[in-house]
Specification:
The structure is a homodimer of 352-residue chains.
Chain A (H helix, E strand, L loop, with lengths): L2 E5 L3 H12 L3 E5 L5 H8 L17 E3 L6 H4 L4 E4 L6 H11 L5 E4 L4 E4 L3 E4 H13 L5 E5 L4 H6 L3 E6 L3 H11 L4 E6 L2 H24 L13 H21 L4 H5 L1 H12 L2 H10 L4 H6 L8 H18 L9 H11 L8 H5 L1
Parallel strand pairs in A: 1-2, 1-4, 2-3, 4-5, 5-8, 9-10
Antiparallel strand pairs in A: 6-7, 8-9
Helix pairs in contact in A: 8-9, 8-11, 8-12, 8-14, 8-15, 14-15
EC number (chains A, B): 1.1.1.94
InterPro entries (chains A, B): 6-PGluconate_DH-like_C_sf (IPR008927), 6PGD_dom2 (IPR013328), G3P_DH_NAD-dep (IPR006168), G3P_DH_NAD-dep_C (IPR006109), G3P_DH_NAD-dep_N (IPR011128), NAD(P)-bd_dom_sf (IPR036291)
Enzyme class (chains A, B): oxidoreductase
Chain lengths: 352, 352
């Protein structure tokens, strides 16, 4: 029996457990230090995850962090990092402490890393280096991308996802563990592009959503209406800049044109915390105000991605590797995030 | 003073008059035989177009078809076809009857043509041939594409549009007539790609919208919620197929990646009649049932585009110019349109 240990029982870590459980994999779902209440809820009579609203398959073993031991990792074929980016260090620390043998490390965590304080890169090299340093060797790695709202995965809505890694055999083995009629897994060898898009689309979604609140319906119009002309211009611009940034980070543009880039951007604009932050800053709030207000206590991945991107990008602009004029939307977003000034969407600059 | 004669006073013909009128162009807005009530409404005290909900600039001259004469065309710099595809023949007939000199012919009409009963092509060659046949020569031609909801253009929401033509000087002259702070005009030399995308995105939007009603929220969920995972998979697939079809019709893939393709697809999925038809057929209705029901009396451009595309595409598949397997979404849409059978979205086939 295939055994999968998932670290992090937030919505994404828990949702991805479901297709694998339906495929009769043995699942150990481990709550992070922030997840005790989630584990309690799933261990209750309803077995329902508060963020997913569906009962978890009964066979999934639920473990609180305080109870976690080497035993839970024994014989694992896959260890899956299911945390959001602030939990990455915790997840890696736990893996290094408990892991035995050479399970494949899968990751749904999305973000970028700032290496040596100045080079923006995707997360897998950071993961590899951490494991090398603490374990003496990295683990086989498979990244997870593509358009996935966790709740919809949990409900069994048709979902197309992409697993990426440098060893096709290992990627395909993971695909078989998770593939379900309504959880379709494509594979790619462009791990860097997959990870780059997974992070960048969060940043871009902030900008597109901001165009909605920055261009509200006219007085007297249906207040629920969203103006789509400005959003469409931003969406197309975001797509172009995402593809360029993907390539700059070492990925392929085609990956940005596919499910990991375009597909995921489409989902992210329409749902989730990045889009909610965009609505706040499009209405005139600074990022710090929004994060202290409507989004207090929440992780908005695009903000962290913005900080990590800004440093490397400034260097790329200054040394001429990239032309700043190609990135008006990214530039406006990074200014609002890093300098904490009101977001100037200046859509006109995209379009002329 | 620049003079522009617009044929067709539906939402698009009327909306595009507004930026040009604000630029102090002389505008003659001509109602089609179906537009008498629209002209009456705009000539009333409110000057409001019923489909746009904003007052038209007072300087626009409003003309009913019965009153149209050569005089209205005298000195025109541009004649703009503002009709939907069923009105194209009427518009061309009127141009041939009244036009003097060599004004530029602009066109917002979107659709495809079936040449010799078997070759699918964009509209400009049809227009050119018609003018050649009746006038002895074609007119300089500029197509209009990009993400434009007419009502938003009329309201002055920031809009990015694309004018395309083979003579850069003429395209740029048109750009200057219409360009406004909130109506930004990009230009392209890829007229074929522009026209191909303008038509194909309508077809694709039907399929993406269908994914929403085909995958409704679970019982107990917010009924207004739309599941985005299936839609994102369809959106990405639509994008890929649109780019291939654009290229097949003689356009450039980059045009499909830009505002005329991706940008316009984003808008069209979220608003308008193509998307409404998609919601109907995704819920199980045949196209004929939807067109006799919720969409009775309306022009759904994607349906006509589907019929025109189906013939040429069948030929391209049979002679090996294109691989049918590359077009699962297009294939499913064409089957539902041409054979009038329930739409089988079979999303899984896109993703594996």
């Amino acid at each position: 029996m295939t055994k999968i240990v998932i670290l992090g029982s937030g919505v994404m870590g828990s949702a991805i457990a479901i297709p694998a459980a339906r495929n009769a994999c043995e699942i150990v779902l481990v709550g992070s230090p922030l997840d005790n209440e989630l584990i309690d809820a799933m261990a209750g009579a309803s077995r329902s995850h508060p963020g997913l609203g569906v009962p978890m398959p009964a066979a999934i073993e639920l473990v609180k962090v305080a109870d976690l031991s080497d035993t839970h990792f024994a014989g694992a074929d896959v260890v899956l990092l299911g945390v959001s980016s602030p939990g990455l260090e915790w997840g890696l620390e736990r893996i290094c402490r408990h892991v035995q043998g050479r399970p494949t490390l899968m990751m749904v965590t999305k973000g970028l890393d700032l290496h040596d304080g100045r080079t923006t890169r995707t997360l897998p090299p950071l993961v590899d280096e951490t494991l090398h340093r603490r374990l003496g060797a990295a683990l086989p790695f498979v990244g997870v991308g593509g358009p996935c709202i966790a709740r919809e995965v949990a409900e069994g809505q048709p979902t197309a996802t992409v697993f990426g890694g440098t060893d096709p055999g290992i990627v395909d083995a993971c695909r078989k563990m998770f593939q379900r009629p309504n959880y379709q897994v494509r594979t790619t060898g462009d791990l860097v592009g997959l990870e780059a898009c997974a992070a960048i689309k969060n940043l871009m979604a902030i900008g597109i959503a901001a165009s909605w609140s920055a261009n509200p319906p006219r007085q007297g119009a249906d207040p629920g209406r969203r103006n789509m002309n400005p959003a469409a211009g931003c969406f197309q611009q975001a797509f172009t800049e995402m593809a360029e940034l993907c390539q700059w980070l070492g990925g392929e543009k085609e990956t940005a044109y596919g499910l990991p880039g375009l597909g995921d951007l489409f989902v992210t604009v329409n749902a989730g915390r990045n889009s909610r932050l965009g609505l706040e800053i499009g209405a005139g709030l600074r990022v710090s105000q929004a994060m202290a207000g409507a989004l207090a206590g929440e992780t908005v991945e695009g903000v962290d991605t913005g900080h990590k991107l800004a440093v490397g990008l400034a260097h790329a602009f200054s040394c001429g590797d990239l032309d700043e004029a190609t990135f008006p939307l990214t530039g406006a977003l990074l200014t609002s995030i890093v300098d904490d000034v009101p977001f100037e969407i200046q859509t006109r600059s995209f379009w002329t």
